[in-house]
Please model this.
Amino acid sequence: MSVMIDPLLAPQHERSDRTNSIEFNDHEPPLAPDSELDRFGRRRTRRWIGRITVGVTVVLLPPLYSYTSALTGPGSDSLQARTVEWARDNHLGPVVDRLENWYYSRHQAVVGGVPSVSVLPTAPRVDTPVVSGPAPLQTPAAVPIPGEGAWTPLGPLINGKADAFVTSIRPDNVHTSSIDEVVNFDPKFFSFRAYPGTKIPQPWDRPDYVELNRRPSLVAAFSGGFRLRDSGGGMILGGAVIQPMTNGIATMSIDKNGVPNIGMWGRDIVDSSSLDSARQNLDPIVDNGIANPDLLTDSNRKWGFTGPKNKTAVWRSGAGITADGHLIWVGGPGLTIEALAQTLVRAGAIRGMQLEINQEWVQLNTYSTNSSGKTTGKRLMSGMQHNGNRWLTEDTRDFVAAFVRSP
Amino acid sequence: MTPELHWRNNETYRRRRAVLAAAVLSFFGVVALTVRESGPHPGQIAMPLLVGIGIVVYVAPFALSVDRGMRRGRTDMPAIALVGTAGIIFLATRSVGSFSQVWPAFTAIVSITLLHAIDYVRTWIADSVAAGGSG
Model:
């Protein structure tokens, strides 16, 4: 071993070996030639392993950066939701669908029983015992629970009168321990406005949250629908076509006066010039006041990929329109696509559409603004995953907000 | 002082200085991210927690990697300064959002990989020059 060369002048990557050599020379007997060869071989192997590891890591850096960016983006989505969204954005949608189905096959909605107190609604309701609301809903369960299907006011009284109502109802006669919420808005007293989310392509004429000046009249907001690319349709926002609309797809439109409509694009909704927004999502699930017969036979293509023929009972939300123009929102756990449609029909919808699937995405928040002007929100159901102040700051998904209509 | 002692002390001094530089630079990166994230937004993580996580997942691994690299003679101060400064700039320019604690972990992976990559590139260049010179 050479100790004649000044180690500080040696190339950087060779210094440590020489350092070791100096120390070994002082304290250990000289190494046998075979051992030196072994050491040389091991060092060479380690170096190659190191090079391969660095090479693999460098190759993996772009997807790692992409995934990290997806995790750290704005919004209140959970780690799981962000991971799923990132996978779907990177051509792994079929894998995610199968994983979801595998998960649902092992976490099915409970059959039978009665709802526990913990799943009952959490939204603030006005303590008005008698209201002139819509007719009570008929529960599909054999034995009703107290108050099931009876409407109570939701949100502030307007001129001393309630104009939005909410009720709790079971999804069907099978999943009787699940309870879902139904909200009824009268558009004579509420105006609606669609908002984009960060995942919605530009251009936007509004922010991806409820503006400060609109918050005092904000009553509620709910999530808009599937990711646009999975919706089977398009979107119009502020008059601009974000994604081309498709005839025959279920559409929630809001005109420039904030009046909503739901129907089939090209048949029920044809004039886009009067619209402020239009959002399409899958095929209609209610038409002419009856559930779409395809709901029972579709092989997981038209309304998402949830078990055989969408019969897996999961969290879903949907919206419908009544003959007199009321907007109906339905959401909660234990809903098959058929149960969602039947609940909309039960609530009086003549046309209806599915909005969301999965507990992560189904959400309706109610809001109130105190005397100092601070707006706070609350989830309609405790099982909803995002916090109550969602949509007061930017969010990934588009949504629809309901405001008290100006006189 | 014997040559051996002089060598060991000098090497230890250089190593400790490099580790300190790595720790300080990476800590500045974590602080830059924390300042960036300090405004209220959805998914905000508590500032002390973000600093703590940053130290565990970035500062400590980066400093340990530098320590190991210096012991093996595979890195030096210019490389550490380059990678550490790039880390500060990178972390200071992240947009606010959720799960910001993932950025220090990502920066640690990139920084350690970069240090190794710089070493391999320099080795490769040195070997090429040596081979060219002898030929």
